[in-house]
Amino acid sequence: MKENLKWFTDAKYGLFIHWGLYSILGGVWKGKRAPHTSEWAMKNLQIPLEEYRLLANEFCPTEFDARAYVKKAKEWGMRYVTVTAKHHDGFALYDSRVSDYTVMYTPYGKDIIRQFADACAEENMTFCVYYSQMQDWEDPNGNGNTWDFDPEKQNFETYFYGKCVPQVRELLTEYGKIGMIWFDTPYDMPIHLCRELADVVRECQPDCLINGRIGYGLGDYRQMADNSIPAHAYTGAWEVPMTLNGSWGYSSFDANWAEPSEVIARLSAVAGKGGNLLLNIGPDRYGAIPAESVRILDEVGEWLKRNGESIYGTSVLPDFPYEIKWGNLTYRQADRVLYLHIKQYPKLTPRVSLLGLKTRVKSARLLNTGEELRFTQTYEVARDEERFAVWIPEQCPDAVDTVVALTLMDDLDVQRLQ
Ligand code: GLC
What we know:
Layout: H1 6-11, E1 13-17, H2 22-25, E2 28-29, E3 32-33, H3 41-44, H4 49-52, H5 66-75, E4 80-86, H6 112-122, E5 126-131, H7 156-174, E6 180-183, H8 191-204, E7 209-210, E8 222-223, E9 238-242, H9 260-272, E10 275-281, H10 291-307, E11 327-332, E12 337-342, E13 351-355, E14 361-366, E15 375-380, E16 385-391, E17 402-408
Parallel strand pairs: 1-4, 1-10, 4-5, 5-6, 6-7, 8-9, 9-10
Antiparallel strand pairs: 2-3, 11-12, 12-17, 13-16, 14-17, 15-16
Helix pairs in contact: 5-6, 7-8, 9-10
Protein backbone atom coordinates (compact mmCIF):
# COMPACT_ATOMS: atom_id res chain seq x y z
CA MET A 1 0.00 0.00 0.00
CA LYS A 2 1.32 3.50 -0.86
CA GLU A 3 2.90 5.15 2.21
CA ASN A 4 0.63 8.20 1.91
CA LEU A 5 -2.45 5.97 2.13
CA LYS A 6 -1.66 4.80 5.69
CA TRP A 7 -3.16 7.87 7.43
CA PHE A 8 -6.29 7.32 5.33
CA THR A 9 -6.77 3.61 5.94
CA ASP A 10 -6.07 4.10 9.68
CA ALA A 11 -8.47 7.06 9.92
CA LYS A 12 -11.61 5.06 9.00
CA TYR A 13 -13.96 7.99 9.66
CA GLY A 14 -14.13 11.48 8.13
CA LEU A 15 -16.45 14.48 7.99
CA PHE A 16 -17.90 15.58 4.66
CA ILE A 17 -19.19 19.18 4.49
CA HIS A 18 -21.49 20.26 1.64
CA TRP A 19 -21.94 24.00 1.79
CA GLY A 20 -22.65 26.65 -0.84
CA LEU A 21 -25.31 28.87 -2.40
CA TYR A 22 -27.66 25.86 -2.54
CA SER A 23 -27.65 25.95 1.30
CA ILE A 24 -29.61 29.22 1.08
CA LEU A 25 -32.39 27.53 -0.93
CA GLY A 26 -32.47 24.47 1.34
CA GLY A 27 -33.92 22.54 -1.59
CA VAL A 28 -36.84 24.93 -2.21
CA TRP A 29 -37.11 27.58 -4.97
CA LYS A 30 -40.21 29.69 -5.60
CA GLY A 31 -42.22 27.25 -3.49
CA LYS A 32 -41.06 24.21 -5.44
CA ARG A 33 -39.18 21.41 -3.72
CA ALA A 34 -36.16 20.14 -5.58
CA PRO A 35 -36.33 16.37 -6.05
CA HIS A 36 -33.51 14.33 -4.48
CA THR A 37 -30.58 16.17 -2.96
CA SER A 38 -30.66 19.93 -2.37
CA GLU A 39 -27.27 20.84 -3.87
CA TRP A 40 -28.76 19.79 -7.25
CA ALA A 41 -31.67 22.26 -6.94
CA MET A 42 -30.30 24.55 -9.67
CA LYS A 43 -30.24 21.69 -12.19
CA ASN A 44 -33.27 19.75 -11.03
CA LEU A 45 -35.43 22.88 -10.97
CA GLN A 46 -33.68 24.34 -14.06
CA ILE A 47 -33.09 27.61 -12.21
CA PRO A 48 -31.74 30.19 -14.68
CA LEU A 49 -28.11 31.02 -13.87
CA GLU A 50 -28.89 34.77 -13.75
CA GLU A 51 -31.40 34.09 -10.97
CA TYR A 52 -29.40 31.45 -9.12
CA ARG A 53 -26.23 33.56 -9.00
CA LEU A 54 -28.17 36.33 -7.19
CA LEU A 55 -28.09 34.02 -4.16
CA ALA A 56 -24.49 35.20 -3.74
CA ASN A 57 -25.93 38.54 -2.59
CA GLU A 58 -27.60 36.72 0.33
CA PHE A 59 -24.64 34.61 1.42
CA CYS A 60 -23.64 35.89 4.86
CA PRO A 61 -23.12 32.96 7.30
CA THR A 62 -22.69 34.95 10.51
CA GLU A 63 -22.80 31.81 12.68
CA PHE A 64 -19.91 30.14 10.87
CA ASP A 65 -16.88 29.31 13.01
CA ALA A 66 -14.37 27.02 11.30
CA ARG A 67 -12.48 26.28 14.53
CA ALA A 68 -15.70 25.22 16.24
CA TYR A 69 -16.52 22.91 13.29
CA VAL A 70 -13.13 21.23 13.44
CA LYS A 71 -13.31 20.86 17.22
CA LYS A 72 -16.73 19.21 16.79
CA ALA A 73 -15.30 16.86 14.15
CA LYS A 74 -12.63 15.80 16.67
CA GLU A 75 -15.24 15.32 19.40
CA TRP A 76 -17.23 13.21 16.96
CA GLY A 77 -14.21 10.97 16.43
CA MET A 78 -13.54 11.98 12.83
CA ARG A 79 -9.98 11.94 11.58
CA TYR A 80 -10.26 14.07 8.41
CA VAL A 81 -12.49 16.86 7.10
CA THR A 82 -13.49 17.23 3.43
CA VAL A 83 -15.11 20.54 2.39
CA THR A 84 -16.77 21.44 -0.93
CA ALA A 85 -14.44 24.07 -2.39
CA LYS A 86 -16.44 24.19 -5.65
CA HIS A 87 -19.50 22.06 -6.25
CA HIS A 88 -21.44 21.40 -9.47
CA ASP A 89 -23.02 24.89 -9.43
CA GLY A 90 -19.57 26.41 -10.04
CA PHE A 91 -19.55 28.65 -6.96
CA ALA A 92 -16.24 28.64 -5.04
CA LEU A 93 -15.95 28.92 -1.25
CA TYR A 94 -12.49 30.40 -1.59
CA ASP A 95 -10.67 33.40 -3.08
CA SER A 96 -10.04 32.20 -6.61
CA ARG A 97 -8.32 34.44 -9.15
CA VAL A 98 -9.84 32.68 -12.13
CA SER A 99 -13.48 33.38 -11.28
CA ASP A 100 -15.53 36.11 -9.66
CA TYR A 101 -18.21 33.52 -8.81
CA THR A 102 -16.82 33.07 -5.32
CA VAL A 103 -17.50 33.75 -1.67
CA MET A 104 -15.32 36.85 -1.93
CA TYR A 105 -18.10 38.52 -3.95
CA THR A 106 -20.75 38.04 -1.27
CA PRO A 107 -21.67 40.17 1.76
CA TYR A 108 -19.66 37.68 3.79
CA GLY A 109 -16.54 38.26 1.69
CA LYS A 110 -14.15 35.91 3.53
CA ASP A 111 -12.28 32.85 2.31
CA ILE A 112 -14.04 29.83 3.88
CA ILE A 113 -11.54 27.25 2.65
CA ARG A 114 -8.74 29.33 4.18
CA GLN A 115 -10.55 29.33 7.54
CA PHE A 116 -11.04 25.54 7.41
CA ALA A 117 -7.42 24.98 6.36
CA ASP A 118 -6.15 27.13 9.25
CA ALA A 119 -8.51 25.52 11.77
CA CYS A 120 -7.48 22.01 10.69
CA ALA A 121 -3.80 22.96 10.97
CA GLU A 122 -4.39 24.37 14.47
CA GLU A 123 -6.36 21.26 15.54
CA ASN A 124 -4.00 18.79 13.85
CA MET A 125 -6.85 17.53 11.69
CA THR A 126 -6.23 16.32 8.13
CA PHE A 127 -7.78 18.82 5.70
CA CYS A 128 -9.22 17.68 2.37
CA VAL A 129 -11.16 19.45 -0.37
CA TYR A 130 -13.98 18.39 -2.68
CA TYR A 131 -13.81 19.77 -6.23
CA SER A 132 -16.36 19.08 -8.99
CA GLN A 133 -14.03 18.85 -11.95
CA MET A 134 -16.50 18.03 -14.74
CA GLN A 135 -19.78 19.71 -13.89
CA ASP A 136 -19.94 23.48 -13.68
CA TRP A 137 -23.36 25.03 -14.15
CA GLU A 138 -22.02 28.59 -14.22
CA ASP A 139 -19.41 28.14 -16.95
CA PRO A 140 -20.80 27.96 -20.50
CA ASN A 141 -18.11 25.39 -21.29
CA GLY A 142 -18.53 23.38 -18.09
CA ASN A 143 -20.64 20.22 -18.15
CA GLY A 144 -24.24 20.12 -17.08
CA ASN A 145 -26.06 23.43 -17.60
CA THR A 146 -28.17 22.62 -20.67
CA TRP A 147 -30.91 25.11 -19.84
CA ASP A 148 -28.85 28.29 -20.05
CA PHE A 149 -26.20 27.12 -22.52
CA ASP A 150 -26.29 25.14 -25.79
CA PRO A 151 -24.25 21.92 -25.27
CA GLU A 152 -23.46 21.95 -28.99
CA LYS A 153 -21.50 25.15 -28.50
CA GLN A 154 -19.67 23.89 -25.44
CA ASN A 155 -15.88 23.57 -25.55
CA PHE A 156 -15.09 21.53 -22.46
CA GLU A 157 -11.34 22.06 -22.75
CA THR A 158 -11.86 25.82 -22.51
CA TYR A 159 -13.46 25.27 -19.09
CA PHE A 160 -10.97 22.53 -18.15
CA TYR A 161 -7.86 24.64 -18.84
CA GLY A 162 -9.49 27.99 -18.03
CA LYS A 163 -11.16 27.20 -14.69
CA CYS A 164 -10.81 23.59 -13.48
CA VAL A 165 -7.03 23.14 -13.66
CA PRO A 166 -6.17 26.67 -12.42
CA GLN A 167 -8.57 26.30 -9.48
CA VAL A 168 -7.20 22.89 -8.54
CA ARG A 169 -3.72 24.42 -8.64
CA GLU A 170 -4.86 27.31 -6.40
CA LEU A 171 -6.31 24.89 -3.87
CA LEU A 172 -3.22 22.68 -3.86
CA THR A 173 -0.63 25.46 -3.69
CA GLU A 174 -2.18 28.16 -1.51
CA TYR A 175 -3.92 26.35 1.37
CA GLY A 176 -1.16 24.33 2.97
CA LYS A 177 -1.06 20.56 3.11
CA ILE A 178 -4.12 18.95 1.54
CA GLY A 179 -4.56 15.33 2.64
CA MET A 180 -6.84 14.36 -0.22
CA ILE A 181 -8.74 15.94 -3.10
CA TRP A 182 -12.24 14.58 -3.64
CA PHE A 183 -13.29 14.72 -7.29
CA ASP A 184 -16.84 13.91 -8.35
CA THR A 185 -19.02 12.86 -11.31
CA PRO A 186 -16.29 12.32 -13.90
CA TYR A 187 -19.00 11.10 -16.32
CA ASP A 188 -17.54 10.77 -19.84
CA MET A 189 -14.62 13.14 -19.30
CA PRO A 190 -11.87 12.08 -21.75
CA ILE A 191 -9.29 9.90 -20.04
CA HIS A 192 -6.39 12.09 -21.17
CA LEU A 193 -7.90 15.05 -19.30
CA CYS A 194 -8.41 12.91 -16.20
CA ARG A 195 -4.76 11.88 -16.42
CA GLU A 196 -3.69 15.51 -16.83
CA LEU A 197 -5.71 16.49 -13.77
CA ALA A 198 -4.14 13.68 -11.74
CA ASP A 199 -0.70 14.86 -12.91
CA VAL A 200 -1.51 18.40 -11.73
CA VAL A 201 -2.33 17.04 -8.26
CA ARG A 202 0.85 14.93 -8.17
CA GLU A 203 2.93 17.93 -9.33
CA CYS A 204 1.45 20.32 -6.73
CA GLN A 205 1.30 17.96 -3.74
CA PRO A 206 2.72 14.46 -4.43
CA ASP A 207 1.35 13.12 -1.13
CA CYS A 208 -2.17 14.44 -1.67
CA LEU A 209 -4.48 11.46 -2.17
CA ILE A 210 -6.88 11.43 -5.09
CA ASN A 211 -10.26 9.79 -4.56
CA GLY A 212 -11.75 7.31 -7.00
CA ARG A 213 -14.09 9.74 -8.77
CA ILE A 214 -11.29 11.23 -10.84
CA GLY A 215 -12.29 8.39 -13.13
CA TYR A 216 -10.72 5.44 -14.96
CA GLY A 217 -9.18 3.97 -11.79
CA LEU A 218 -6.67 6.83 -11.66
CA GLY A 219 -7.38 7.54 -7.99
CA ASP A 220 -5.49 6.30 -4.94
CA TYR A 221 -8.51 4.50 -3.57
CA ARG A 222 -11.87 3.19 -4.70
CA GLN A 223 -14.89 5.43 -4.19
CA MET A 224 -18.01 3.45 -3.56
CA ALA A 225 -21.36 4.75 -4.77
CA ASP A 226 -23.17 7.17 -2.46
CA ASN A 227 -24.44 5.46 0.69
CA SER A 228 -23.41 2.05 -0.73
CA ILE A 229 -21.47 -0.53 1.27
CA PRO A 230 -20.00 -3.47 -0.70
CA ALA A 231 -21.52 -6.85 0.14
CA HIS A 232 -18.08 -8.40 0.57
CA ALA A 233 -14.72 -7.30 1.96
CA TYR A 234 -12.62 -5.24 -0.47
CA THR A 235 -8.87 -5.53 0.09
CA GLY A 236 -7.83 -2.19 -1.41
CA ALA A 237 -8.36 1.20 0.24
CA TRP A 238 -11.90 2.46 -0.26
CA GLU A 239 -14.42 4.95 1.09
CA VAL A 240 -18.17 5.28 1.10
CA PRO A 241 -19.71 8.77 1.34
CA MET A 242 -22.89 8.83 3.43
CA THR A 243 -25.62 11.32 4.20
CA LEU A 244 -27.40 11.62 7.55
CA ASN A 245 -30.70 12.32 5.80
CA GLY A 246 -31.47 12.24 2.07
CA SER A 247 -29.49 15.31 1.06
CA TRP A 248 -25.83 16.33 0.90
CA GLY A 249 -26.59 20.03 0.94
CA TYR A 250 -28.78 21.58 3.64
CA SER A 251 -32.45 20.66 3.20
CA SER A 252 -35.22 22.69 4.84
CA PHE A 253 -37.64 19.76 4.69
CA ASP A 254 -35.85 16.40 4.59
CA ALA A 255 -36.37 15.00 8.10
CA ASN A 256 -35.49 11.42 7.18
CA TRP A 257 -32.56 11.27 9.61
CA ALA A 258 -30.47 8.17 10.25
CA GLU A 259 -30.37 7.00 13.84
CA PRO A 260 -27.01 6.88 15.71
CA SER A 261 -27.31 3.09 15.86
CA GLU A 262 -27.60 2.96 12.05
CA VAL A 263 -24.54 5.15 11.66
CA ILE A 264 -22.51 2.98 14.05
CA ALA A 265 -23.74 -0.16 12.28
CA ARG A 266 -22.55 1.29 8.98
CA LEU A 267 -19.27 2.52 10.43
CA SER A 268 -18.43 -0.92 11.88
CA ALA A 269 -19.63 -2.69 8.71
CA VAL A 270 -17.46 -0.43 6.53
CA ALA A 271 -14.43 -0.79 8.81
CA GLY A 272 -14.84 -4.58 8.89
CA LYS A 273 -14.75 -4.68 5.10
CA GLY A 274 -11.61 -2.53 5.03
CA GLY A 275 -13.12 0.85 4.18
CA ASN A 276 -13.65 4.41 5.39
CA LEU A 277 -16.91 6.17 6.10
CA LEU A 278 -17.09 9.81 4.99
CA LEU A 279 -20.14 11.13 6.82
CA ASN A 280 -21.83 14.30 5.65
CA ILE A 281 -23.27 17.44 7.22
CA GLY A 282 -25.00 20.22 5.28
CA PRO A 283 -24.64 23.58 7.08
CA ASP A 284 -27.49 26.04 6.59
CA ARG A 285 -27.33 29.58 5.13
CA TYR A 286 -26.18 30.97 8.49
CA GLY A 287 -23.28 28.53 8.78
CA ALA A 288 -24.99 26.51 11.50
CA ILE A 289 -24.89 22.70 11.57
CA PRO A 290 -28.43 21.24 11.63
CA ALA A 291 -29.36 20.32 15.22
CA GLU A 292 -30.35 16.78 14.16
CA SER A 293 -26.91 16.21 12.66
CA VAL A 294 -25.28 17.38 15.89
CA ARG A 295 -27.53 15.08 17.97
CA ILE A 296 -26.69 12.02 15.88
CA LEU A 297 -22.96 12.71 15.62
CA ASP A 298 -22.68 13.50 19.33
CA GLU A 299 -24.10 10.07 20.19
CA VAL A 300 -21.90 8.28 17.64
CA GLY A 301 -18.92 10.18 19.03
CA GLU A 302 -19.71 9.04 22.58
CA TRP A 303 -19.85 5.42 21.37
CA LEU A 304 -16.48 5.87 19.64
CA LYS A 305 -14.93 7.24 22.84
CA ARG A 306 -15.78 3.89 24.49
CA ASN A 307 -15.18 1.62 21.50
CA GLY A 308 -12.93 3.41 19.01
CA GLU A 309 -10.27 0.70 19.39
CA SER A 310 -12.61 -1.56 17.39
CA ILE A 311 -12.70 0.88 14.47
CA TYR A 312 -9.55 3.01 14.10
CA GLY A 313 -6.58 1.31 12.48
CA THR A 314 -8.47 -1.94 11.95
CA SER A 315 -7.84 -4.09 8.89
CA VAL A 316 -10.01 -5.75 6.31
CA LEU A 317 -11.01 -9.22 7.43
CA PRO A 318 -11.97 -12.18 5.25
CA ASP A 319 -15.62 -12.97 4.81
CA PHE A 320 -16.90 -15.56 7.27
CA PRO A 321 -18.74 -18.56 5.81
CA TYR A 322 -22.09 -17.69 7.38
CA GLU A 323 -24.01 -14.45 7.60
CA ILE A 324 -23.73 -13.12 11.16
CA LYS A 325 -27.23 -12.36 12.42
CA TRP A 326 -26.36 -10.54 15.67
CA GLY A 327 -24.05 -7.93 14.14
CA ASN A 328 -20.67 -7.76 12.40
CA LEU A 329 -16.93 -8.00 12.92
CA THR A 330 -13.87 -5.78 12.75
CA TYR A 331 -10.26 -6.91 13.06
CA ARG A 332 -7.01 -5.35 14.27
CA GLN A 333 -4.37 -7.42 12.51
CA ALA A 334 -1.40 -5.81 14.33
CA ASP A 335 -2.66 -7.05 17.71
CA ARG A 336 -4.60 -10.08 16.43
CA VAL A 337 -7.82 -8.85 18.03
CA LEU A 338 -11.20 -9.73 16.51
CA TYR A 339 -14.07 -7.47 17.60
CA LEU A 340 -17.63 -8.78 17.75
CA HIS A 341 -20.11 -5.90 17.27
CA ILE A 342 -23.32 -7.15 18.87
CA LYS A 343 -26.25 -5.09 17.65
CA GLN A 344 -29.09 -7.57 18.04
CA TYR A 345 -28.50 -8.45 21.71
CA PRO A 346 -29.80 -11.98 22.53
CA LYS A 347 -32.99 -11.93 24.62
CA LEU A 348 -33.17 -15.52 25.90
CA THR A 349 -29.65 -16.91 26.29
CA PRO A 350 -26.88 -14.34 26.91
CA ARG A 351 -24.53 -15.87 24.34
CA VAL A 352 -23.44 -15.23 20.79
CA SER A 353 -21.91 -17.77 18.42
CA LEU A 354 -19.48 -17.46 15.56
CA LEU A 355 -19.01 -20.26 13.06
CA GLY A 356 -15.92 -20.79 10.95
CA LEU A 357 -13.31 -19.20 13.23
CA LYS A 358 -10.28 -21.49 12.88
CA THR A 359 -7.82 -19.43 14.93
CA ARG A 360 -7.70 -20.30 18.64
CA VAL A 361 -8.96 -17.60 21.00
CA LYS A 362 -6.74 -16.64 23.97
CA SER A 363 -9.23 -14.40 25.80
CA ALA A 364 -12.56 -12.59 25.46
CA ARG A 365 -13.50 -9.31 27.11
CA LEU A 366 -16.13 -6.60 27.01
CA LEU A 367 -14.32 -3.80 25.24
CA ASN A 368 -15.60 -0.82 27.17
CA THR A 369 -15.27 -2.33 30.65
CA GLY A 370 -12.46 -4.89 30.18
CA GLU A 371 -14.61 -7.55 31.92
CA GLU A 372 -13.32 -11.05 31.06
CA LEU A 373 -15.95 -13.30 29.43
CA ARG A 374 -16.38 -17.09 29.36
CA PHE A 375 -16.21 -18.72 25.92
CA THR A 376 -16.06 -22.16 24.27
CA GLN A 377 -14.36 -23.15 21.04
CA THR A 378 -14.94 -26.57 19.50
CA TYR A 379 -14.53 -28.36 16.18
CA GLU A 380 -17.41 -30.61 15.23
CA VAL A 381 -15.86 -33.36 13.13
CA ALA A 382 -19.12 -34.72 11.74
CA ARG A 383 -20.04 -31.31 10.41
CA ASP A 384 -16.49 -30.12 9.72
CA GLU A 385 -17.43 -26.94 11.54
CA GLU A 386 -15.49 -24.64 13.81
CA ARG A 387 -17.89 -23.39 16.52
CA PHE A 388 -17.12 -20.51 18.88
CA ALA A 389 -19.49 -19.15 21.55
CA VAL A 390 -19.05 -16.40 24.14
CA TRP A 391 -21.27 -15.71 27.15
CA ILE A 392 -22.17 -12.04 27.62
CA PRO A 393 -23.87 -10.14 30.49
CA GLU A 394 -27.61 -10.67 30.91
CA GLN A 395 -28.14 -6.92 30.76
CA CYS A 396 -27.11 -5.44 27.42
CA PRO A 397 -24.11 -3.18 28.19
CA ASP A 398 -24.56 -0.94 25.14
CA ALA A 399 -27.90 -0.82 23.32
CA VAL A 400 -26.32 0.70 20.26
CA ASP A 401 -23.48 -1.78 19.77
CA THR A 402 -21.87 -3.97 22.45
CA VAL A 403 -18.32 -4.83 21.47
CA VAL A 404 -16.57 -8.03 22.61
CA ALA A 405 -12.82 -8.22 21.94
CA LEU A 406 -11.33 -11.65 21.21
CA THR A 407 -7.55 -11.84 21.52
CA LEU A 408 -6.39 -14.51 19.08
CA MET A 409 -3.41 -16.82 19.45
CA ASP A 410 -2.43 -16.37 15.81
CA ASP A 411 -3.33 -14.44 12.66
CA LEU A 412 -7.00 -14.67 11.80
CA ASP A 413 -7.87 -17.78 9.83
CA VAL A 414 -11.39 -18.47 8.63
CA GLN A 415 -12.90 -21.79 7.58
CA ARG A 416 -14.02 -22.13 3.96
CA LEU A 417 -17.11 -24.20 3.26
CA GLN A 418 -16.01 -27.08 1.03
C1 GLC B 1 -23.14 12.76 -5.95
C2 GLC B 1 -23.84 14.11 -6.09
C3 GLC B 1 -23.08 15.23 -5.45
C4 GLC B 1 -22.52 14.89 -4.09
C5 GLC B 1 -21.80 13.54 -4.16
C6 GLC B 1 -21.35 13.11 -2.76
O1 GLC B 1 -22.06 12.73 -6.82
O2 GLC B 1 -23.93 14.43 -7.46
O3 GLC B 1 -23.94 16.33 -5.35
O4 GLC B 1 -21.59 15.90 -3.76
O5 GLC B 1 -22.66 12.54 -4.65
O6 GLC B 1 -20.89 11.77 -2.81
